[in-house]
Amino acid sequence: MTVVHRVQQGALLVAIAILAFFSVSGPHAFDTGELVAAAFMLGGSHPPGQPLHAIIGFAATLIPLGPAAFRVSLVSISGAVAAAALAGSFARRIAERLSDSPLPPSISTALPFAAGFAVLIAPPVLRQANRPEVYTLALSLFGVACLSLFDWASSERGKSGSLLAAAFAGGLAASLHPPHGLAAIGVGAAFAVTARRDLFRRPRVLASAAGACLSGLSVLVYLPIRAAAGAPMWGNPTSLAGFFDYVTGAAYQHNLGTGAGTFGDQLMEVARYLPYAAGAVPFFGLYALARFSRGAVVGQRRIVAALLGAAVLAVTGAMVTPIDPVIPDMVAYAGPAVFLVITVGAAGVALLPRPRWALVGLVGIATSLFALEAAPEAVRADAPVLDALGQSLTSAPPPRSLVIVTDDFTASTWTMERAVAGARPDVALFVSGLASSSWHWRTLASHAAFDGTPASGPGRDPWQRFTRGAMQLAAPMVPIVIETDEWSGGQGMLAGPYLVGDGRLRRAVLTGSTSERLAEHIARLAAEGPAGDEGVVHAIYRTYEVRRARRLALRRETGAASLALSRALIDPSPVELAALVAAHGAINPALIAPVVRKPG
Predict the structure, then answer these.
(1) Residue 564 and residue 569: Cα distance in Å, rounded?
(2) What pLDDT score was predicted for residue 511?
(3) DSSP per residue, 219-263
(4) Has residue 140 got a pLDDT over 80?
(5) How confident is the model at residue 277 (pLDDT cuts 50, 70, 90)?
(6) Is the Cβ–Cβ distance between 54 and 47 less than 8 Å?
(7) CB count, 10 Å around CB of 375?
(8) How far are the Cα atoms of 498, 565, 584, 597 from residue 542, in angstroms, in the given order?
């Protein structure tokens, strides 16, 4: 083993150690808790079920190291580091294949480091790297598909084994996250059309590739098998119709967010985001590679055309949803495009005729200002305030109550805590966004107020009608705990982040409850801890605290309301402060003392 190989392995281990040190250890933003629960229980998560992540995540939970969320985060860490290693290897292989002479030792050494590091710190990768998610694992499989396609296309006779490996990896990626699989198909089409047109004259090879892709997708069979065994699922995949509804997300469009705009608008949005995510230098590398092909032989020109076409078609994965830079899940869709832009661009820079300029360009790729500026915030995935807030959410409801939740963080936290810690088996958890799903009603059957049969009440849409139906069934028997004011008009006893329905005490505050006692501790953690990626941790905390302040103000608890609002204002801007005070006119502005977060 050479010194360079040892340094490369050491760099990967350092990256793993840093990501693990700042990794998630409890409930976190968006759907991370749900993915932890699916891994811990060998169940299924939201569509398309992510069975491969559940299987690998379950293996990770067997590691006797840290809480369950941390163990499942190790899957994301491994995926991110693997994607970086694949990017470095791919970039060097491209440059070596296209160069007429051996690469200078300095370039051969620097190229994989630059490409790998740039991919690792790119926002679509680093923002998913140490929290429970599917994206980095899907990106590493996309990288395997790209590398295998390049080997297939650049060989003289076309290695069918490499093509089959690429198709299988693409199928696995699609089972994890369909847009990554779609991007892999786009890359495969680019290589087939430009470099290996003979594939279309070889129907057996083409059919074998399709079969390999389906073999990768066959991991979805896990869903009906585990559902039949009683594992928790986000649907009922035991029937053919239920299976297709599950893997296509047909029943959950209400929960999947808004779709992308027009094709042109979405394309412009992706085009604006890519230079920020990948940096400017890789695009210069793509241009340099295009100029390089002018003086190259036919075989080299075809490879360059395939690589440039692949970088363009990889954006197909990012075309299915808006690219909102604030939400890490949305920018992850651009991961395949960023991976190829950086990798192919780095190879183009390495092929510059002057090695000194090539080294400068590789340093520029590895030190993208946008990525480096965002990296310290993105890598701090640990959020003690969300851990404490999660405890408040699960401890506040009275025994045997019906708990109606709306926010993603609340639903995900409950799902994880019940699966991992067996928390609060006495309550009936009702997610209003799943109110119209019959399988969700069946999860309530163990509670005394329900038999698993859906019930409908008054409302403007199915979700509101079925939620009110659940409330009507529970009202005569058990307390109803509500997260948002939508379902009660703001009436009920205030208990931490919830309202507890009770007509006799509709404006009371349960000041002695566990959640109320935790409020000061949670506020301190918010003030002292990290704001989270794009401020998401503080945003989640602020949502609950401002909602609580409004409820306290309506109950004429002006001092407590002012204190709650001041806790929510962590490093507030004057505009934010004025807007919140105006929105909560019952609160005395003079009593508000904004919390200033401590440095670090």
Answers:
(1) 9
(2) 47
(3) GGGHHHHHHHTT---SS-TTSHHHHHHHHHTGGGGGGS------H
(4) yes
(5) very high
(6) no
(7) 17
(8) 15, 9, 14, 13
Mean pLDDT of 109-120: 95
Q: Distance between CA atoms of 387 and 24, rounded to whole angstroms?
A: 10
**Would the pLDDT of 571 be above 70?**
no
Residue 589: what pLDDT? 44
Give Cα 44 to chain centroid, integer Å. 16
Which residues of 468-545 form beta strands (DSSP E)? 480-482, 493-495, 498-501
**Terminal alpha carbon distance of the chain:** 40
pLDDT at 600 over 50: no
pLDDT digits (tens, 9 = 90+) for 521-547: 888 888 888 888 878 888 888 888 888
- On whether the CB atoms of residues 111 and 96 are closer than 8 A, the answer is no
Write the pLDDT tens digit of every residue in 191-237.
Answer: 999 988 888 888 899 999 999 999 999 999 999 999 999 899 988 89
Residues 112-123 have a mean pLDDT of: 96
**What is the radius of gyration, based on Cα positions, of the chain?**
26
Q: What angle do CA 60, 134, 363 make, to 5 degrees?
A: 100
Q: Which of 162, 53, 123 is nearest to 337 (CA)?
A: 123
DSSP 23: -
* Contact criterion met (CB below 8 Å) for 90 and 146: yes
The CA-based dihedral angle spanning residues 139, 530, 72, 143, taken in that order and rounded to the nearest 10 degrees: 10
Q: What backbone phi and psi angles, to 5 degrees, belong to 163?
A: -65, -45
Q: What are phi and psi of 4, to 5 degrees?
A: -60, -45
Q: What is the pLDDT of residue 251?
A: 57
| Strand 480-482 with 402-405, pairing | parallel
The helix (H) or strand (E) run that includes residue 364 is helix 355-366
Q: Where are the beta strands (DSSP E) in 266-388?
A: none
Question: Mean pLDDT for the chain?
Answer: 86
> Could you tell me if 348 and 288 are in contact, meaning their C-beta atoms sit under 8 angstroms apart?
yes
The residues near 283 (Cβ < 8 Å, ≥ 6 apart) are: 275, 341, 345
**Angle formed by the axes of helices 335-350 and 105-121, nearest 10°:** 160
Spans of all domains in the chain: 3-379
Q: Specify whether the CB–CB gap between 60 and 72 falls below 8 A.
A: yes
For residue 4, the model assigns a pLDDT of: 67
CA distances (Å), 114 to each of 106, 440, 479, in order? 12, 48, 58
Angle, vertex CA 81, rays to CA 80 and CA 85, nearest 5: 120
3-state SS, residue 494 = strand
Separation between Cα atoms, residue 444 and residue 427, nearest integer Å: 9
Model pLDDT for residues 48-101, shown as the tens digit of each residue: 899 999 999 999 999 999 999 999 999 999 999 999 999 999 999 999 999 888
pLDDT of 592 > 90? The answer is no
Give the Cα separation of 580 and 138 in Å (integer). 41
